[in-house]
Here is the input.
Amino acid sequence: DTGVSQDPRHKITKRGQNVTFRCDPISEHNRLYWYRQTLGQGPEFLTYFQNEAQLEKSRLLSDRFSAERPKGSFSTLEIQRTEQGDSAMYLCASSWGLGETQYFGPGTRLLVL
Amino acid sequence: DAKTTQPTSMDCAEGRAANLPCNHSTISGNEYVYWYRQIHSQGPQYIIHGLKNNETNEMASLIITEDRKSSTLILPHATLRDTAVYYCIVRAGPGGKLIFGQGTELSVKP
Here is the structure.
């Protein structure tokens, strides 16, 4: 059984460019979460999906951010017109159902120059 | 959402027990306490969780006070590889999102 995987692990981009990250959850986990972590802080919740439905979005998720989970399996997180303040670690977690333990992936570290 | 309070940092000698405290005085009756840890530059790793009773697994023990306002994570025989930031979290809301605080930076020293 493989864990949560994320791709890429590292991304360097220039301000104003668009970036897309992918998360593959643990097989058959129906809930998928995205978090963001800046240096020295704990992870902050961004959004979550149950199957393909996006059920909650944090106000941290500005209109430049969009997340999808089209077939209820993998998910993508896109950031448009990146800003230096978007530099962070983007973490994905998955769980089976409400109340079940969330397991995290290794994260994608984004640096916006 | 319930909030947690943890010491910023702690030291522990290798081979000794590490006892990490957490206060969660506003926890609701149906909210679980979760512990995760994060080793530098890695994703958070699940350790243990509990509701009312004490819990033990192969990694750690979780002691929750009777009034549920605080808990302690115990690593019985700390090793250098246990050096990490430990987060005490009260899972909140119907969506189950985790609200992380600053955590405790545990340094295990030889």
Notes: The mean pLDDT of chain B is 92.
